Amino acid sequence: MTDQTDRTVEQHSYDVVVIGAGGAGLRAAIEARLQGKRVAIISKSLFGKAHTVMAEGGCAAAMGNANPNDNWQVHYRDTMRGGKFLNNWRMAELHAKEAPDRVWELETYGALFDRTKDGKISQRNFGGHTYPRLAHVGDRTGLELIRTLQQKIVSLQQDDHKVTGDYQANLRVFHECTITELFTTSSGPGAPEEDRRIAGCFGYFRNDGRFVRFDAPAIVMATGGVGKSYQVTSNSWEYTGDGHALALRAGATLINMEFLQFHPTGMVWPPSVKGILVTESVRGDGGVLRNSEGKRFMFDYIPDVFKEQYATSEEEGDRWYTDPDNNRRPPELLPRDEVARAINSEVKAGRGSPHGGVFLDIASRLKPEEILKRLPSMHHQFKELADVDITKEPMEVGPTCHYVMGGIEVDPDSGMSSVPGLFAAGECSGGMHGSNRLGGNSLSDLLVFGRRCGLGAAEYVDTLGAPPQVASGDVEAAIERALLPFSSATDGGENPFVVQLELQKTMHELVGIIRKADEMEMALKKLEDIAARTRTVSVEGHREFNPGWHLALDLRNMLLVSLCVGKAALERQESRGGHTRDDFPVMDSDWRHVLLVCRGLGEDDVELTRKEQVPMRPELFDLFELDELKKYYTGEELGGHRAGQGETA
Amino acid sequence: MSHWHHFRVWRGDADGGELVDYPVEVNEGEVVLDIIHRLQQTEAGDLAVRWNCKAGKCGSCSAEINGRPRLMCMTRMSTFADDEVVTVTPLRTFPVIRDLVTDVEYNYVKAREVPAFAPPAGVAPGEYRMQQVDVERSQEFRKCIECYLCQNTCHAVRDHEENKAAFSGPRYLMRIAELDMHPLDAADRRDLAQEEHGLGYCNITKCCTEVCPEHIKITDNAIIPLKERVVDRKYDPVVWLGNKLFRR
User: Fold this and answer.
1) I need a surface site. Which of A458, A640, B110, B244 has the fewest CB within 10 A?
2) Same domain, residue pair B137 and B60
3) Which residue of B has its CA nearest to A173?
4) Which residue ranges form the domains of chain A, and what is each CATH number?
C-alpha cells in the first residue's frame, strides 16, 4: 500500500508519450510506433473505455459511396459553414482531404462498418452535411472506432512480441494513470521562453496512488474535452480539461475557448440521466422536433445565412429523405448550434415538454423494426433508463454541454503547439471546427490529426539531438502539489465534490448556452473564490483508488479551463456558433477574423489576447460563391475572390 | 419523490473487507450508480468505484448487485422494493483492488493472445467489399462493451482460479468467433481456439449470455458455431452431447 507521504517515483523513458487513449491518442500512438518510435499510451480510465465510445452517429468522410457528387471540396465547404468561417481553414482542408483514407485504413485493421448494397461502406445523413457522409455502425460508431484502434494497438504489440518476446517492448499502455504535470526545460522563473521544450510528464496510478514520471522529448495531448465543468453534460467524469490545463501550465496557448457546443438533444428525464446524449442520427434518419403544441417548430428558426439550403415546408423536408437532389433538407438538420438555440427558445416561451425539453419523434416516422435496426442503442437507452419505448412514443430532449471547439493552438500540418515537443490532437486541440463543429466531424478529426500528430512527433524526435532533461526540482514540486489535498485535510479544507458542484453550477447558470456580460462578470468573480477553495480542498483516506483525491487534482484543471471559457466569452461581443450573447445577438464580420488566445498565469489564472486569423488560401476561397462569403466577411476581405478579379479583368 | 433505502456496500481491499450498511436517499428515476455517487459525495468520499459513461456504453461500472452481475448504471432503483436491502459487491472472479474496483488485467492478457485481424492479401484500402448480411454476424459480437460480466460469471474460471491460464473466457472465445466469421479475415483460427484458448472448457451452460447487458447471444451465435467448426478437426464431447440433445 502506498503511504500518503511516500515520495517514491517510478520512472520510464520513451520517445513519444501519448496522453489520452481515445481515438486521437490511439491513432497518434499507432502512427508514432509505425515510424519506429518507442511509445507509451497513458489512459485515465481502463484501456478501451475512452469517451470515444460515446460517439454514436458516425465518422464524416467524403467517400461518395451514397452520393457520387460528394468530394472533399463539398465536405470542406460544409465544415467552414458549420464553423461560421472561423475555422482554421488549413485544418479543415487537410481533414476533408484525408478523412476517406483514414476510414478505409480502419477496414484494414478489422473494422466492420454498415454496408451499401454494392458492398461499400454505407453513409448516413447528418446536420450540416450536404450529402450522406457518415460511415457508421448502427448508432454505436464510436465503440467500433475505439475497439478497432485498440485491436490495432494489440496487433502491433503482437508484432513486437514475435521479435522481442515482449508484447510491451515498444508500445505500452499505462492505464488508470492520470498525468498532473508536464515538464519542460527552463521552466524555472525567469527562464528564457525560447529554450522551453518538452522533457516529460508526471502523474499517479489510480489503483495504488504511486507516482510515476515519463521522460520523453515528445508528448501528444489527446485528452478530450471540458464538459465536466458544466452541470448538464454528455461528458463523463474524465472530461475535466486536463490537456487544456496541462498545456497552459507548460506555456502553450489555447484558442477559441468561448465556443462550446451544446448538443441539442440530450435526455432531460429522469434527473439522474439528464444530459446523456441522444444521437443526431435520430434526426438524420427522419426524426422531427415538436413543441407542446405538436408543431414542427424548426421551420421558424432557419437563419438567413442558411435560407437557401433548407426546406421551407414540411412536405419538401419530408420529400428530401427519398429525393435529396430535388428537395432541400428539413431544418431539423441545421447545424447543432442553431437547433440547440431553437429548443432553448421554445422552452423559454412556455412551449416545452413536461420535463423542460421538447419532443423528438421518430415513432410516427419510421416502422418499429426500422427503428430497432437503425437506432438500437437509443431504443435500449430510453427503455432501460426512462421507461420510454421510442418505437411507440416521442422522446423528451434538451440541450446538453457536449463538445469544446476551443483547445490547444497547433500547427495544422504537424499538430505541434507553441511549445516544441508538445503536440495536440482531437477535442483538446483548437481551430479545426471554428465556432461550431458538425456532427460526424469529430471521429474523422481525431483520425486525421491523431495520425498527423504521431507523424509530427516522430519527425520532431528525429531532428532532436540529446533529449531534454527533466529538472529534479520540478519533480519535487509535482509531488508536493499532488500531495497537497492530504496536507490540507489537517487544516480543514473543503470536500472536493462540494467545490465541483459549485463550479458546475456557476458555469451552467452564468456562462451557459445564452450569455450576458453582467452574468459572466459575476461568474469570473465566483471563479476567483472557487480558485481559492480549489487550492485548499482536502481529502480523507489514502492514495489507493481514492476518488476524492482524484477529483481534488482534476478540479484545478476544471477551474483553469472554466476561466478560459469565461474570459473569452466575455470578450467576444457577438454571437457565433457555440457562443451566443443575449446582449450582442448578431454575428459581426469584424469578429470573424479575430481569435482569442489564452495563456496561463501561474497556477490558476489566465490572460487573454487577440490574434488575427490567417486569410484563406485563394483557391480555397474561390470554392465559395461570393454571395455566400458576403454574409460572413467584411468588404475589404472579399477583394481576392475570383468574382472580384473577373470583374476587373 | 424521494425515499430512504438500505444499502450494503462491500468495503475493503486485497487483505480483506466487510459489508458496510448505509441508509441513503433515493430519488425517482435513479440507478444504483447514482446511489454509490451519493455515498461518495456525502459520507464515503473515498469509496472506490469505476465508472465512465453512465449510459451503458463503456462497460466500466460492473459489480454484483444482490448477487447478480450487473452494470450499476443500468440497474434502476425502481426494480427493488422500497424495503429491499440492496447489496453491492465487487466482481468475484477478479482480485479486489479496493471496494468495488477489481483488477481486470486477466482480460487484457487474454486479449493480447488472440491473433489480430489478418487483412486479405492484394486488397487495397478502400477496395474492401462485403455484404451487410455477412458483416452482421461479426457485428453482433462487436457490440461487446467489455464489461467482463460474462468473464466474471463463467463458472469455468469463477470457481476455478487454476483454469485461468488455459481458458480465455467467453469474451475472447467470442472474439475468435468474430474474426473467424469476418468475411475478409485471412487466418484459420480453429486449432488456436481449441488448443490455446480452451474452447473445450466451455460446456454451454449459457451463463455468459444471461448476464450480457448488450444481449449478445454469446453461446448460441459465437461459441457453439465455433465448436462446430473445430469439431471436424477434433473430438469435443460437449459438441457431441450438444448435437444429441439440442439438435432437431
Assistant:
1) B244
2) no
3) B108
4) 262-402 (3.90.700.10), 488-612 (1.20.58.100), 619-648 (no CATH)
